[in-house]
Amino acid sequence: MSKQKHYDVIWTETAKRDFIEIIEYIAADNLTSARKTANRIKRKAVNLETFPAGGRWVPELLHVGVFIYREIIEKPWRIIYRIEKNIVYVTAVLDSRRDLETILLERLLR
After folding, report:
1. pLDDT per residue as tens digits for the range 76-106
2. Residue 14: CB partners within 8 Å, gap ≥ 6?
3. CB within 8 A of 82, min separation 6: which ones?
């Protein structure tokens, strides 16, 4: 029986900031919903410890030749990450209802 590989999951500062902004925004309206959303996103990210290759390539980046970022969906959130050896770096948590190109442009202009 082979042992399943374990990956460390590390959240970048940007991803942490995304997560906090999402939860604070929801909490302003509904604290219970904010807690549920936080738990759902965290649980989904924990799954990356055992099977990070299960996420799809980020479609908007594929057409420009960027193949290092993957994503998993916890509707309506996109958890974007990259894998380096045995580490998964969560790089962003974004609202799938927003345009990714607009978000990336905003981040470049900060």
Report:
1. 999 999 999 999 999 999 999 988 888 877 8
2. 91, 92, 107
3. 68, 69, 70, 88, 89, 91
SS3 for 8? strand
99 within 8 A of 88, measured Cβ to Cβ: no
List the Cα angle 15/62/20 in 5-degree steps: 10
Pick the CATH number of 8-109 from 3.20.20.70, 3.40.630.30, 3.40.50.2000, 3.30.2310.20: 3.30.2310.20
Predicted TM-score of the model (pTM): 0.88
Q: What is the DSSP-derived secondary structure letter of residue 49?
A: G
**Residue where the block lists tokens 């219970």:** 32
